[in-house]
Structure formats: C-alpha cells, structure tokens
Amino acid sequence: MSSSPFLNHIRSELRLRGYSLKTEKSYIYWIRYFICFHQLQHPTLMGAAEVRDFLSFLAIEKHVAINTQKSALNALAFLYNKILDRPLGDLGFQHAKQGRRLPIVLSPDEVQKILSSLNVRDHLIFSLLYSSGLRISECLRIRIQDINLEQGSLNVRCSKGNKDRTTILSRKLANAIKKQKTSAQAIQQEDNKKGYGPSLPFALGKKYLNAFRQFSWMFLFPSSSISPHPVTGELCRHHLHDSVPRKTLKQALQCTNLVEKKVNCHTFRHSFATHLLMAGRDIRTVQELLGHNDVSTTQIYTHVIGQHFSGTDSPLDQLL
C-alpha cells in the first residue's frame, strides 16, 4: 500500500506544501493505519464517523499517549481538509487520557558533568541544545548560513510546525563552532571533487544546480557517509543522524553516574527554559526562543521551579 497511487498523491501534496520529511513519514503512517483499520476502505468512502472510531480505538484499545493521538488526528485532518476537501468538523471522539507530567531538568552542575565527559564534536552538539534551547533535530540540521556569531544568534529552519525562528547563540561557543565549520568545509571540498555535496531542499537543488558547492549550504554536523537523497535519489551527504548523539549521551550518563535520572537529548531544552526562568527572564521571551505557539506550553516550566505559587508560604512557616 505504501506505493499506492493514492498515498503517492498525498506524499506529493505534502512535499508541494513544504512539509518536512519527518512529518511526511508520520502522516503517511497514520493514513495507512487508518485505512487498514477500516478493512482497506478508501477514505473517500469514509468520513467523520470512521475517523472518530479510529481515534477512540487508539485511546481505548491501544492506550496511546495524548500526543500520539494528536499526531493521528493531524494526519487525518490534513487528508480530509486539504486533500479530499471534506472538513471533518467537530468529531467528539474519546481523548487519550494523560495527566500533566513535569519535564526532567538537569541542574547546572549536572549539565557541566555531562558536557565534560563528551568528545569535542558532541560537546558542541549538547552545548547548543542547552545554550540555545534546540531540539536535537533542529541542532543537527544547522547549516553554516544559519549561524551568526557576530550577533550571537542562530536561525532555526523548518522546526516543529514547519516554522522558522531565531534563538540565542552563546558567544562562548565561537571557537568550537569555527573549528567545526573548518572540519565541515574540508568534508564538503572533498565531496565536491566527486560531484556531490550536502543534501538540499528539492526545489532549491533543481533551481540552483551548483548550490551544493556553496559552503553556506553545508551542515555544521555532516554525516560520516554518503547516501541517496530521500526525494531525488541523488547521492549526497546528509546531516549527522540523531542516533549518534543519543548513544553518546547514554554513555556519558553512565560515566557521570546520572543514570538514575531519565535524561535524553530533549532534557537539555527543558533545562534551557527552566534555567532562564530561574534567572528571572520573561516567560514571553522564553516562549519565543523555544518557538511555542501558546504561552501555556511554556508555563509548564514555571511548575518545575514553583513560580506558579506566586511566593505563597507554607502554613508551617508561620509556626516555626
């Protein structure tokens, strides 16, 4: 079914509208799952009732997390609203249940311990996650043109929700970034001699045939190998795969005896937001740096540090 004309049409529409490959894979997965759930009926023969049944099935039978259910809903909403031009309206389905979970946050000392156990490249990767509040995918997709050391800023392209934003860039990372840029440039020069370079957005690669030779398009953290472009099939060099820093982090946690904490790459983004709020930064500023649409998403970090209590004292303090 993955190569069916219908799914290929959806894939083409996603690429035409500029959706990321990660979103494309997710949407195709959920649409295929939805069709299989309804015994291979074509979506044009189904509607809101079938979508509601599927989403309720995920919550009740599969016990999926609320964000997983939202991913399925987004995929099916795209299918019916954008592709089939049949808006679903108010579905009234069974929502997945999940209480509020406070994010795991590292202390500054714990961040320092982890960073000190990493090699030069991975030290820079996790320093960027922590100092700029990046997701791991955003960090690994950094191209040379996104970095502005003079202004201390970093452009984040096509992040979650297909949005761009600008965040802060620590000037203390300037020397490490310059060394990494030199390493990336050497890799690109060798690739260019063989006729290929960094992977490019499909439309841009078609329009500017020699863009792969421009250093501005090179990834700061290039992959160690060459592979086919997921759209064109042409040989190119992608950015480093996120499994590499994840494995490195796991080893670092064991070396620093921090295995009792459930730490992952996203923990450094949580720590970035929490430490900014603890330092007295405005929540709207933190919201903008993180790229959150709604400030309520950012407010979860005020619960981590207890700001939502607004200075309320415990009644025990009045007795002692």
The CATH architecture classification of the largest domain is Orthogonal Bundle
Poorly predicted ranges (pLDDT <50, ≥5 residues)? none
The biggest sheet amounts to: 3 strands, antiparallel
Q: Widest sheet: strand order?
A: 1-2-3
| CATH superfamily annotation of the largest domain | Intergrase catalytic core
Number of helices: 14
CATH third-tier fold name of the largest domain: hpI Integrase, Chain A
Short overview:
With 320 residues, the chain is mainly alpha-helical.
What features would you describe in this structure?
The protein has helices at residues 5-16, 21-37, 48-60, 66-83, 108-116, 120-132, 136-140, 174-193, 202-207, 243-255, 265-278, 283-290, 295-298, 300-305, and strands spanning 147-148, 153-159, 163-168, 227-228, 235-236. The protein is mostly helical and 320 residues long. The protein has 2 domains: 5-83, Tyrosine recombinase, N-terminal domain (DNA polymerase, domain 1, Orthogonal Bundle); 100-309, Intergrase catalytic core (hpI Integrase, Chain A, Orthogonal Bundle), CATH 1.10.443.10. The strands form 2 sheets. It has a 3-stranded antiparallel β-sheet with strand order 1-2-3. Strand 2 (153-159) and strand 3 form a beta hairpin. The longest helix is centred in the middle third of the chain and has 20 residues, at 174-193.
Provide tags for this entry:
320 residues, DNA polymerase, domain 1, 14 helices, mainly alpha, three-stranded antiparallel β-sheet, 2 domains, hpI Integrase, Chain A
